[in-house]
Amino acid sequence: MASLSQYLSTLNKDRRLAVALPVKVISNEVGVAPQWSCTYEISRRGARLKHVRGVMVEGQEIWLKRLDVSAKYRVTWIGKDTGSTEGQFAAECMEDTTIWEDEINGKLQPIA
Known about the structure:
This protein has two helices and six strands, in the order αββββββα. Strand 2 (35-42) and strand 3 (46-50) form a beta hairpin. Strands 1-2-3-6-5-4 form a six-stranded antiparallel β-barrel. By secondary structure, it is mainly beta.
């Protein structure tokens, strides 16, 4: 299982922003309705979020929706049951779509 530091190092070229934004998480798990979560940190290609029911394993494909925009993501990391990252997961966007508003996207330009 990947660690949080390994996840963050994969995003080293992306600017990250520590911001709490509500997003809807839609998983493919049977019997699990879409659920609201909140971000801890975002980048243009990914997000670290509060864990929700239906996010089960790394590699799982989910949808994240912010306002009226949704995109397919892959779960890249799930926090361990103990420690400061308990109850968190990270996901990376599998599409060219970004779900963040223009004002936020402007703050997430790649680091030169």
